[in-house]
């Protein structure tokens, strides 16, 4: 549209909603191989404060690998990742400190089964952040309330539905007060009737100003909640733009083909 400009630093579409916001995450010329197999090629990407970026694309296109590189669970062979002023890919970067600034929610939520819901949320606060137990409990209650589960604080995770457990995992990530939240198919392992409560929490976060990069197959969520949508294909960002541009005016043949299969 007339209001869309190209950001020369990132080769990236910037919408009016996000143009003025500072860059939280900047990925520059990122490449990643597993052994001899290249999986990500020369990725450039910015995520600005309070922006929700959805990553869509076929299975095997490199979406999970990209998120893992962002969280330093995988090491890229080339390129740079900056979180605010910190270069995460610098040789002596403090990986643990960087990870504490990024919340990650996976398909499988991996709650500790023998701990209460509340303790699942507080354990990293007391052990990693060194917070005292009462302060951690107050923070846990606040974030459990945010995901609609304050009443379940004393229960074991096994008593909760999959959707509720995933919301606990979200609360656990939020309690660390991350600058950026990454979601990798957070609803893909859930029974269909449990998906909508998790998506509702993610929508609330997006509209509440959280900065998020969300890998999802939920095209309705991407269309409604994303500020921008990136279409990944063969390890590249093949298209990036507003949901309107991606969903209504797709011109990339692989994107059109992908959308015709999933919509
Ligand atoms: P997506 O999340 O889009 O489905 P992935 O990032 O999981 O894609 O995978 C991208 C490519 O990398 C695929 O070809 C996949 O088989 C390969 N791959 C993913 N993880 C590994 C790994 N740990 N070792 C080797 N190859 C991998
Ligand atoms: Mg994946």
Automatic annotation (TrEMBL):
GO terms for MF: ATP binding
Subcellular location: Cell membrane
Membrane-related topology note: Peripheral membrane protein
InterPro entries: AAA+_ATPase (IPR003593), ABC_ATPase_HisP-typ (IPR030679), ABC_transporter-like_ATP-bd (IPR003439), ABC_transporter-like_CS (IPR017871), MetN_ABC_transporter-like (IPR050086), P-loop_NTPase (IPR027417)
Organism domain of life: Bacteria
Gene3D superfamilies: P-loop containing nucleotide triphosphate hydrolases
Location of the ABC transporter domain: 25-259
Keyword field: Amino-acid transport, ATP-binding, Cell membrane, Membrane, Nucleotide-binding, Transport
PANTHER family cross-referenced by the UniProt entry: AMINO ACID IMPORT ATP-BINDING PROTEIN, GLUTAMATE_ASPARTATE IMPORT ATP-BINDING PROTEIN GLTL
Family note: Belongs to the ABC transporter superfamily.
Protein name: Amino acid ABC transporter ATP-binding protein
Source organism per UniProt: Streptomyces venetus
